[in-house]
Specification:
Largest sheet: 10 strands, mixed
Order of helices and strands: EHEHEHEEHEEEEEEHHEHHHHH
Radius of gyration: 19 Å
Number of strands: 12
Shape: globular
Helix content: 40-55%
Number of helices: 11
Distance between the termini: 43 Å
């Protein structure tokens, strides 16, 4: 069984160097490490080659989705790990994930507990869930690490910050949708997997550390614009026959969050871009009942975890309005 690591990358040779050196410490080594470069202008190519990785230059910044797709096309492996350039992994990360997917068969993907690299007492990510409002929650993000995040479980969606996937899954479900470029492309992929009946596992025994938005910043205006745009693309693609009120509530509330961070203009700009781009987007003709079932279950998981760990203001208001 072969395992490849695919690292989508843009500048920040320092982060890439740290990650590649970290991968050498895995108790179960990767058989192939592929860095797919979105037009870096620093020493990234030299760093990758000196540290033994394959370097695939795209020539310009096409975004996360195309870089990942190019890496998957190049990989000759049974399993593919997708890793952000600003993560590091505990030495047993890959070994623990591989053991879990063997024990939990059928499992098509696996994600680990991801802690903040700045403060390891805080969760950065675990697994993703999606509401009927078209807004996703990276479950646990920003919360203190706690027993609830130490429970292994079946999951619907894996954040591609640091996750492991069967190579066959991309042939069965299709590649990442490059219309999303960057942000929410993994949620779109996870939703397609869930609708097709391909589930995964959350493995808290495997641990990674993530700096988080190290290239642009979490509330960078371009980040907010892209997320805002891709929320429109996600709902246009999948939610075309779903109730409109939860979508309206979810999107407007997210706009208020952007406003609180001084990014109202970026939010509006993103929505307008999304509306224009959605006209050329392929619509997923998913059965109304099946999509409703997946979204309802996913939303119930969000509500349950919010109740257990304390409500974010966004989700408290959303659930008051949408009545799950």
């Amino acid at each position: 069984m072969k395992v490849a690591a695919v690292i989508p990358h843009w500048n920040r040779a320092d982060l890439l160097s740290t990650l590649l050196k970290n991968l050498e410490l895995q108790t179960r080594r990767f058989d192939d490490v592929i860095v797919v470069d979105n037009g870096s202008t620093d020493q990234s190519a030299q760093v990758a080659r000196e540290l033994g990785a394959r370097f695939l230059p795209l020539g310009q910044n096409f975004g996360f989705a195309r870089a990942v797709n190019r890496g998957i096309e190049e990989a000759r492996a049974d399993w593919i790990a997708i890793l952000n350039n600003d993560v590091t992994l505990d030495s047993g990360w890959l070994q623990n994930l591989l053991q879990a997917v063997e024990e939990e068969s059928p499992a098509w993907f696996a994600t680990s507990k991801i802690l903040s690299a700045v403060d390891s007492s805080l969760i950065d990510a675990t697994f993703d869930e999606l509401s009927r409002g078209g807004c996703a929650w990276r479950c646990g993000a920003g919360r203190p690490d706690a027993p609830v995040w130490n429970e292994a479980r079946r999951i619907r969606m894996a954040p591609m910050t640091a996750a492991l996937f069967r190579a066959d899954l991309f042939r069965k479900v299709g590649p990442l949708d490059e219309a999303f470029e960057s942000y929410l492309e993994d949620v779109d992929f996870g939703l397609r997997c869930s609708l097709a009946g391909f589930g995964g596992v959350y493995v808290p025994a495997a641990v990674a550390y993530h700096r988080g938005s190290a290239t642009l910043g979490r509330w960078n205006s371009d980040t907010v614009r892209r997320i805002s745009r891709n929320q429109v693309l996600l709902t246009a693609k999948h939610f075309w026959d779903q109730p409109r009120f939860p979508i309206l509530a979810g999107q407007l509330l997210w706009g208020l969050v952007a406003l609180r961070h001084g990014r109202a203009f970026s939010y509006i700009r993103g929505k307008l871009e999304g509306l224009r781009k959605a006209r050329t987007l392929g619509i997923e003709k998913t059965g109304h009942t099946e999509l409703r079932r997946v979204l309802t279950q996913s939303e119930q998981t969000i509500l349950s975890l919010q109740r257990q760990t304390g409500f974010d203001r966004y989700w408290r208001v959303y659930f008051c309005l949408s009545r799950p």
